[in-house]
Amino acid sequence: MEILQFLILPFIASLILTGIHAYLGVHVVERGVIFVDLALAQIAALGATIAILLGMDPHGGGAYWMSLGFTFIGALIFSLVRSRHKRIPLEAFIGITYAVASAAAILAMSKATGETEHLKDMLVGNILAVSQREVIKTAILYGCIGLFHFIFRKRFLAISLNHDESEKLGFNVRLWDFLFYASFGFVVTSSVAIAGVLLVFCYLVVPSVGAMLFADRIGTRLAIGWTMGTLVSALGCYFSVFFDLPTGATIVCTFGAVLVCMAIAKTLFFKARSGEKKAEPVKMVTR
Predict the structure, then answer these.
(1) What CATH code is assigned to 2-273?
(2) How far is CA 98 from the centre of its chain?
(3) Of the segments 41-50, 54-63, 119-128, which one has the largest average pLDDT value?
């Protein structure tokens, strides 16, 4: 019981991550920008490194806002290059941005005298160490971002599902793209600090991919994604206790195992349905 009480906050944090990331994952997969969270996380780490070089407390508000400011710059870049360079996939720009931000962070860290361990924690995360204050703060922040996306859901979905058609309809696509990536930056900057890059990436992509195996409608995909994320969070926390394993890595592996099971179930279901159609008797027409 003591161990379960110890895991209650990490489990609640996992549910909060599931709620916002499963939704954002739908947009990320439809836009074809699978690795945008990695790029924005690295940009945020670069901002934190610069803050340290400027003498800011890495755990203070100044470093956080510096990181967030850098993610806004990344959001601006992604929103601009998508509209101007249609022949070049946006994923290519995301990869370039990730590489440059990583190299710049390494150069900046080479000049930092200390506190670089905080940057490692920012990218690796430790969901077991999450506090009640962090859980409450994250829930309020994500609730506000979720409300923002709910109010403007038609615009965001229209642009994610059909970018070119949205431009023809007269939408200010660059502005809405920036708002999407900026709100996404808020989420990534906070989530990565709690759970690390790998776990955040799984919460973002895996539920959406798993849902796409069984549904095409956005509402159904969200329901499947939220259900999958909740079950995987519970199973991951349980397995981490039962087998005495790191919680974050256990949840990541559980995501992979559950996705494989869903893919197998989809294949078997599809074959069964195909067999039923082939086995339907042919009605003979008699004169």
Answers:
(1) 1.10.3470.10
(2) 16
(3) 41-50
What tokens appear for 150 in the block?
């709910």
Question: Could you write out the DSSP letters of every residue in 48-87?
Answer: HHHHHHTT--TTSHHHHHHHHHHHHHHHHHHHHHHHH-TT
Helical ranges in the chain per DSSP H:
2-31, 36-53, 61-84, 90-111, 116-124, 132-151, 153-161, 163-168, 173-195, 197-212, 218-242, 247-278
pLDDT of residue 118: 62
- Half-sphere CA count of 85, side-chain side, radius 13 A: 12
In the DSSP assignment, the letter for residue 217 is S
Please tell me the distance from the alpha carbon of residue 14 to that of residue 200, in angstroms, as a whole number. Answer: 10
Task: Name the pTM for this structure.
Answer: 0.83
Q: What pLDDT shows up at residue 224?
A: 94
Encode pLDDT of 229-265 as tens digits.
999 998 988 888 888 888 888 899 999 999 999 999 9
CB 25 within 8 A of CB 207: yes
- Residue 206's identity, in one-letter code, is V
Nearest Cα to Cα of residue 139 among 29, 226, 9, 238? 9
Q: How far is the C-alpha of 128 from the C-alpha of 244, rounded, in Å?
A: 13
Domain positions in the chain are 2-273
Query: Cα(140)–Cα(34) distance, rounded to whole angstroms?
Result: 26
Distance of alpha carbon 127 from alpha carbon 141, whole angstroms: 17
**What is the predicted pLDDT for the residue at 206?**
94
pLDDT for 272 beyond 60: yes
Averaged pLDDT of the chain: 84
How much is the average pLDDT of 20-47? 89
